[in-house]
Structure to design on (652 residues):
């Protein structure tokens, strides 16, 4: 059975269930302090839009190929891998004809005039031998700086794909790019291999950035880039992307590489490789973080049971019509023993010692005492030996190892602020943003508990950027909301549920002017923080804040109900499967029921929260692992890969 939903129109988006005081479970009393994995209730994830839905049981991500994510670019196009071939490039003669030249430039004759005949002939030999003989060429000393500049510019223009230059004293050294490491190249092609040829100079190219589609399995984006760098001997600084994609999903996204030829990257496409690259083109600008509008998901929910098929369809139709509460998913709050928001609260108070202790000192819940992480913490508490402790912490404990290495270099454990600053910048931000997200989730639950789903006086509503405005990339909320208005008794009828926003605490936001604003203040005061005093001396904890819509509407939602017998049967096609011309399964025969669900979510929205609203079921990895084991996949089937970040988000 298949149902296809079109992109939500304004009228459809406005239709919400009748306003009511939504029934929710008990709100957690604790502040941000949590031990163990962040759970839904502890993260403030409690309410539902449709509280009376019966719900059903299903397995999320039984196979790795059950969760597919394709990035959506700024033009609204879904990024797809459709070819692995490099682009056809313009030849030297074609480029010359386009420029109106009657004949190619005699490069070496002109170089001889700028230097001398011996230098020109040696450069020719170096280029033709791909740097084997000679490996470099030195000019005589050139006293006039203007003349030296002319040589540099000439080489860059005519031989920039093969040769790089630098100045030694008053002489110029010319080296083959085949013999130069990427990090040492200035202005040339990064990472030339012998045999790689660029038919035209970069000045003749459509752009100096090679944009390509990255398809990956079992790696997050940073791991995939590292794999490319190790395979091609390129520097990671060459690459840029719009957002990081999850490790435990099959994902497709755009990447740009500065002055790298496509042929160099195609060497990655081996049958056993965990990634593929393709759809190459040359563009003028590199990608920046936030240069995307969302993600397209294809999700397979297996072993659906617990209610009749008619109720399953009703739940799907409700999700399409009403959407879901735009909670930050549990993966936002970390997968470690200590939740990110707990550490973030300490950092926002400038309690550096408290933050260090949370990350390094014991405090595991029951059952965790024997873990390697726990043993490392206990060793640190007993011995305070940075060199010994850093060897005990797993390599994945980036923050802990960074602080311990800092203590080791200083030969002291007194500088707690310095230890925190030794943590990579992006990771430090994750902690404080985690606290913002925690406050937002708690406020969202309380807003729905007290006032239901419709706007009420004192709420904030979004004033969205117009299409012709130069909107900046999405902020931490994932929304492009720069202005808000206050709902009053006089204008409340002008707004719908889709307009309501809640603030992420910061110094440049407005708070609701009703009891929800008071609730946010009280909640933060319990943690020793004031929502109106978020301007700090340290940049990374001085947060401007932002706004996030209370409800989210999946776009272009469609689904198909499938029947199957083999728990490991492939029920969704990846881009690579489609390249190999595999056929998609459409089956109504089998002992088990599955849903193949497709939807588009904006950047910053969590697919797991949409699934939670759909199923009214625990989406946590631990619970999903239990269901997956009960489904009894064959021994030789693909290994299950449930983890906190396996339940992917569109948080990019």
């Amino acid at each position: 059975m298949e149902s296809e939903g079109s992109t939500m129109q304004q009228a459809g988006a406005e239709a919400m269930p009748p306003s009511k005081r939504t029934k929710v479970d008990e709100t957690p009393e604790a502040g941000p302090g949590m031990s163990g994995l962040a759970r839904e209730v502890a993260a403030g994830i409690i309410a539902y839009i449709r509280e009376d839905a019966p719900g059903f049981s299903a397995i999320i991500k039984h196979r790795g190929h059950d969760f597919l994510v394709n990035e959506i670019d700024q033009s609204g196009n879904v990024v797809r891998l459709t070819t692995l071939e490099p682009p056809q490039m313009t030849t030297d003669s074609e480029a010359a004809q386009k420029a109106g030249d009657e004949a190619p430039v005699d490069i070496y004759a002109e170089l001889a005039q700028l230097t001398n005949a011996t230098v020109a002939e040696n450069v020719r030999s170096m280029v033709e031998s791909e740097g084997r003989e000679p490996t470099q060429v030195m000019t005589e000393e050139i006293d006039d700086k203007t003349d030296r500049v002319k040589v540099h510019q000439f080489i860059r223009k005519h031989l920039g794909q093969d040769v790089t230059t630098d100045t030694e004293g008053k002489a110029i050294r010319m080296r083959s790019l085949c013999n130069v490491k990427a990090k040492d190249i200035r202005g040339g092609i990064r990472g030339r291999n012998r045999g790689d040829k660029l038919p035209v100079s970069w000045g003749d190219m459509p752009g100096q950035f090679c944009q390509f589609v990255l398809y990956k399995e079992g790696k997050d984006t940073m791991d995939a880039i590292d794999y490319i760098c190790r395979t091609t001997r390129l520097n990671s600084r060459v690459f840029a992307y719009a957002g990081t994609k999850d490790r435990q999903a099959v994902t497709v996204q755009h990447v740009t590489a500065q002055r790298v030829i496509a042929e160099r990257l195609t060497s990655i496409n081996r049958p056993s490789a965990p990634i593929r690259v393709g759809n190459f083109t040359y563009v003028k600008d590199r990608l920046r973080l936030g240069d995307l509008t969302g993600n397209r998901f294809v999700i397979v929910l297996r072993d659906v049971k617990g209610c009749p098929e008619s109720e399953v369809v009703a739940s799907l139709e409700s999700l399409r019509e009403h959407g879901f509460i735009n909670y930050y998913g549990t993966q936002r709050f970390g997968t470690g023993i200590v939740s990110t928001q707990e550490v973030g609260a300490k950092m926002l108070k400038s309690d550096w010692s408290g933050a260090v202790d949370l990350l390094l000192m014991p405090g595991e819940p029951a059952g965790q005492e024997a873990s390697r992480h726990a043993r490392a913490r206990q060793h640190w508490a007993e011995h305070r030996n940075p060199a010994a402790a850093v060897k005990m912490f797993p390599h994945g404990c980036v923050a802990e190892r960074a602080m311990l290495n800092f203590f080791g270099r200083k030969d002291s454990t007194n500088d707690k602020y310095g230890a925190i600053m030794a943590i990579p910048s992006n990771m430090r931000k994750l902690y404080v943003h985690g606290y913002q997200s925690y406050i937002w989730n708690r406020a969202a639950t309380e807003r729905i508990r007290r006032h239901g789903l419709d706007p009420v006086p004192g709420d904030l509503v979004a004033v969205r950027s117009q299409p012709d405005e130069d909107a900046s990339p999405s902020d931490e909320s994932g929304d492009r909301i720069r202005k808000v208005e206050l709902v009053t008794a006089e204008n409340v009828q002008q707004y719908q549920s889709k307009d309501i926003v809640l603030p992420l605490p910061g110094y440049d936001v407005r708070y609701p002017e009703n009891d929800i604003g008071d609730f946010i203040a009280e909640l933060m005061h319990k943690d020793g923080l004031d929502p109106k005093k978020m301007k700090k001396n340290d940049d990374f904890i001085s947060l401007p804040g932002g706004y996030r819509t209370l409800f989210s509407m999946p776009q272009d939602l469609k689904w198909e109900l499938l029947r199957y017998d083999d728990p490991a049967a492939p029920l969704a096609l990846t881009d690579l499967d489609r390249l190999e011309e595999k056929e998609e399964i459409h089956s109504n025969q089998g002992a088990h029921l599955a849903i193949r669900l497709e939807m588009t979510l904006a950047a910053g929205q969590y697919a797991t929260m949409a699934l939670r609203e759909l199923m009214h079921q625990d989406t946590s990895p631990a619970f999903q692992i239990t269901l997956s084991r009960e489904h009894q996949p064959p021994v030789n089937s693909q290994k299950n890969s449930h983890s906190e970040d396996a339940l992917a988000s569109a948080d990019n």
The mean pLDDT is 82. The chain has 19 helices and 19 strands. The longest strand covers residues 294-305. The first helix runs from residue 10 to 14.
